[in-house]
Design brief:
alpha/beta; Rossmann fold; 20 helices; 36% helix; 22% strand; globular; binds fructose -6-phosphate
Length: 614
């Protein structure tokens, strides 16, 4: 849940580390630190809070590290121990000769700490990571070889980790390793980078090696040597990274979130390219290996995901059941992994994850794979750990999402489910050709409809202004838009910290209605279709309890003006596609409310973009 970077080469290292950490801020941002190899010794600098505090901390020390060309850096999202200076990385062994940065969780850290304390190690922090610093230092004292010390320590460490290690006695050598946490090596001219994610290095190089679990790499300006845990030499596979540096700029928007919301029409167009050419053509999903036989033998589909991806999964269930008539269960990955699921060779397990690295989903996928299920991964990161577990893959091509709150990746995941449900229905022949053509026609029109919503965003900003000071917010919907209500509420709470909840409207009178009074805003996602009248009557029930009513609607029904204090109008769309249209104003509403409140929109407190710990 943290971000790590490393560099060894011939350039001045501090800016490389700090720039790299800035690109990893989405992974956590409650403290940060760097260690650099100075002329005589390694120097460590740390700061609590955001990265800008570390920048300030470094001011005035420039002379100390002006000629340094090797270092490691870390941005932390606290798991073990509060976000304090002592708990911030890098961590050192007792003599300060060895420094380490770590992303992940060392599960046996208590045992390691006890054992190391007995042999004289004195712990300064409450972190799991400090145990690694002492352990590797102890191994180094025995073998005097940093790579070997890390390799030997790997046998004793349990859990998930990506590590970068330096030692005072190895002036030009960076050693890195990983297990169940992401880490890649960027390759330049007589220089190597290490990072938790591509954005930290893409500015410098697009040549990279994805380190595999239990591999240890020794990097010097001239060489890269990789071994596995048994010390067998590995021939690394060098890959060319697909991301463009321009993707990381705000391009004139105030926040990445706003930019990413505006990218959504193009995200839809991108995912359609090569997959749906025309309404009368078949959907092409080249990396999906499901055929008539596998689908005929399928007993069930399970979709597993977390957070926003879970909401996309819930809509996926609705689509697959409607289009293909196959029973689908959706479950939070964190629940799936701790129970006996009925999963076997006749199960299709779909993992949905923007990052492809979320620990709970990754574990769930591995469990399902071990039970023989066919694994299909829907992800924005075709280079991720989850993608590497996949039998079938749908890369959603949303581009790098920097804002912690997911927006464009959600739309892209929804699009993946539309395409998948259509693709499976074509294989199963479960929808009449004329209906298929009409569905595909509508799908291809979605980008223009979102552009229409974006062009009227000032209206949504005005509505937002009226609710910025509310303490609570309720979103109601029915049918395919119930997950939209959940996602609208999640967006609002994560960036504005307003207590927001999504309900299936029929549940209101089973409890939540007790909360309604003239202070409570209730936003009704009132899209034309099968549940319109039902939801209208639920909205009337809420209005009768004096709630402050807001409609998000594509209906032009005049009587809505009497029922609702504010109406957010969206273009008309077939009910099945309404979740794509309905979520955009809700993202904007959350954005503008958070902006009015002066919140840190792109980096909300306590959150991280990639949750690589369970
Ligand atoms: C919300 C958000 C999170 C993620 C969740 C899963 O805006 O971003 O709820 O959706 O942490 O992450 P991925 O999709 O990377 O598995």
């Amino acid at each position: 849940m943290c971000g790590i970077v490393g560099y060894v080469g011939n350039k001045s290292v501090v800016d490389i580390l700090i720039d790299g950490l800035e690109q990893l801020e989405y992974r956590g941002y409650d403290s940060s630190g760097i260690a650099v190899m100075c002329d005589t010794e390694i120097k460590v600098y740390k700061a609590i809070g955001k990265l800008k505090n570390l920048r300030e901390e470094l001011c005035g020390h420039e002379k100390e590290f002006s000629s340094t060309t090797m270092g490691i850096g870390h941005i932390r999202w606290a798991t073990h121990g509060a976000p304090t200076l002592l708990n911030a990385h890098p961590h050192t062994c007792n003599c300060g000769n060895l420094v380490v940065v770590h992303n992940g969780i060392i599960e046996n850290y208590k045992e390691l700490r006890e054992d190391l304390a007995k042999s004289g190690c004195v712990f300064k922090s409450q972190t799991d990571t400090e145990a690694v610093a002492h352990l590797v230092a102890r191994k180094y004292a025995q073998c005097k070889d940093l790579k070997e010390a890390v390799r030997l320590a790997s046998y004793e460490i349990e859990g998930a980790y990506a590590l970068c290690v330096m030692h005072n006695e190895c002036k030009n050598t960076l050693v890195i390793t990983k297990r169940n946490a992401p880490l890649l090596i960027g390759i330049g001219d007589n220089e190597f980078y290490a990072a938790s994610d591509v954005p930290a290095i893409i500015k410098h190089t697009n040549k990279a090696v994805y380190l595999e679990d239990n591999q240890i790499a020794e990097l010097t300006p001239e060489s890269m040597e990789i071994v596995d845990i048994e010390n067998n030499k590995i021939n690394p596979k060098i890959e060319i990274l697909p991301w463009e540096p321009v993707a990381l700029s705000k391009m004139g928007y105030k926040h990445f979130m706003l930019k990413e919301i505006h990218e959504q029409p193009d995200v839809i167009r991108n995912i359609l390219v090569g997959r749906l050419h025309a309404p009368d053509e078949h959907v092409v999903l080249n990396e999906v290996k499901l055929n008539h036989e596998t689908l005929t033998h399928l007993e069930r589909i399970q979709i597993i995901a977390c957070g926003t991806s879970l909401h996309a999964a819930m809509i996926g269930k609705y689509l697959i059941e409607s289009f293909c008539g196959i029973s689908v269960d959706v479950e939070a990955s964190s629940e799936y992994i701790y129970r006996k699921t009925v999963t076997n060779e006749r199960t299709l397990v779909i993992g949905v994850s923007q990052s492809g690295e979320t620990a709970d989903t990754l574990t769930a996928i591995k469990q399902a794979k071990a039970k023989g299920a066919h694994i299909l991964i829907v992800t924005n990161r075709p280079d991720s750990a989850m993608a590497r577990e996949a039998d079938s893959l749908i890369p959603v091509n949303a581009g790098i999402e920097v804002s912690v709150a997911a927006t464009k990746s959600y739309i892209a995941q929804l699009m993946a489910f539309y395409l998948l449900a259509l693709y499976m229905s074509e294989i199963k022949d479960s929808i009449a050709p004329s209906t298929l053509t009409s569905l595909k026609t509508e799908l291809m029109l979605l980008p223009q409809k979102i552009e229409q919503i974006l062009s009227q965003k000032d209206n949504i900003q005005n509505v937002a202004r009226n609710y910025a000071n509310t303490k609570d917010f309720i979103f109601i919907a029915r049918g395919i838009n119930y997950p939209t209500a959940l996602e609208g509420a999640l967006k609002l709470k994560e960036i504005s910290y307003i207590n927001a909840t999504g309900y299936p409207a029929g549940e209101l009178k089973h409890g939540p209605i007790a909360m309604l009074d003239e202070t409570m805003p209730v936003l009704s996602i009132l899209m034309n279709g099968s549940v319109y009248e039902k939801l209208l009557s639920n909205s009337e029930e809420a209005k009768a309890r004096n709630a402050r009513m807001i409609a998000l609607t594509n209906s032009r029904d005049e009587k809505l003006n009497y029922l609702f204090e504010h109406i957010i109008k969206v273009p008309d769309v077939q009910e099945l596609f309404s979740p794509i249209i309905a979520i955009v104003p809700l993202q904007l509403l959350a954005y503008y409310i958070a902006e009015f409140l002066g919140k840190d929109v792109d980096q909300p407190r306590n959150l991280a973009k990639s949750v690589t710990v369970e």
